[in-house]
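Friendly challenge for the regulars: who can give me the structure tokens for this chain first? No prize, just bragging rights.
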Amino acid sequence: MGIIKNTCCFKSSLLGLTMFVLQAAAQNTASNPLIHADVPDMAIIRVDSTYYMSSTTMHMSPGVPIMKSKDLTNWELVGYAYDRLVENDAMNLENGQQTYGRGSWASSLRFHKGTYYLSTFSATSGKTHIYTTGDIENGPWEKHEFAPSYHDHTLFFEDGKIYMIWGAGELSIVELKDDFSGVKENTRQVLIKNATEPIGASIILPAEGSQLFKHNDKYYLFNIAWPRNGMRTVIIHRADQIKGPYEGRIALQDKGVAQGGLIDTPAGEWFSYLFQDSGAVGRIPYLVPVKWVNDWPVLGVDGKVPETLDLPENGSLIPGIVNSDDFDRQVGDPALPLVWQFNHNPDNSLWSVSERPGYLRLKTGRIDTLFLQAKNTLTQRSIGPESSGSIKMDVTNMKPGDFAGLAILQKKYGLIGVTCEGDQKSIFMSKNDEDGGLLSKIELNQDTVYFKIECDFKNRTDNAYFYYSLNGETWESLGEVLQMQYTLPHFMGYRFGLFNYATENTGGSVDFDYFRITDTLSAKTN
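First reply, four minutes later:
Bragging rights claimed.
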């Protein structure tokens, strides 16, 4: 009996040890996608043991988000390169102008001799913008700019010179002035005549998205291209000198995961950071392991993007990338946490978190007839594979013709909120798609109301569901399901948005008590 008892104890102990090892292994396993949210055009650097990443948010203000990580998998927002890209009608949503899908695009991020450099370009301003700081997490950033706007460029420092490589298909190189005020004369030359050549002549997208790296005295230029009847593809060119000649090859062709570059860990491991077009949620980051073979970076595992990585587990995107907000500010708190961005440049006189402490107040200051042209829509990302955004709103001070509430924003947007007609307020749901227009409306006879939008991105289902509540506990569906669609005119994943705009009278306002975001959906709340 004693022997049997000891054997059982041994088996029990072995099982416990096995479970512990499996749990420990799971906690040290990251999964792809790295970030299930719209974080495209990444540029990543490592400074000692800390990683920094910049990305694209185009027409949003502030712009060019900076994120930080200690383990390459879990990221948090730490700042933006600029508060406002440029003051013109397009960025200010004035005179019928807008800049959806433009603003600023793919950035280049560098650290050189104690200074951080972030460069981007803009069709909206027609310029190349370079921002510099000694403190990437706290700033301030100093702005430098010049014309023209160099498409998808990469910044590089070498032997006391500052280079910029840019283009699509044909790639060029130029030297910049030391003060970043422009280009040195007579320094432009074609670097690679046809960078798309490795995938053939039948293409949808020529090689672009340049990012340049140096390893063991060789130069590696990453680009993305898209063969017709194929998928987005990583192309790498290699040279012994920065100005070439370069030889190119296909580096990865799997799941459309492409565009990015190289990053190493303090332990000497190498990865390539890339992204994938993933439907309505946007362009989402992936990591693939890299091995060096015959002085070439070999991406992936047997040429494939792995589902898991030997890196710390990536946790929730809440609170580092998106977060709930009760708008309750203490002394010294920023008016808006970094998770928030305005759709285009805001009018800062028309929003406040101090006029009514504990609330975000959005006021109307002009007449607009279109939601997409309205100022001061405050946004943050939706996240996959599913997410829910909800608000509590006080509509006491709305005026006739006002529309306010919760949006899911892209060109084919959906709205749920309150509209005021004469003395009667009503709950409404509308969407901007092929069905279009106001789909549902019911009378509202109280001043506090709750709204929720749930987004299902699983397997690219891309459905949004709309709900209202009169007490914050019992929810009712309203209107129709929105079939979300990623469109190139907006070129951005769907975002939750808080809005208030006037169609008849200015001077109205609404107060948002909170915004709550979750990474789960309710069990059919209608």
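The first helix runs from residue 2 to 27. Residues 446 and 470 are 8 Å apart (CA to CA). Your move, everyone else.
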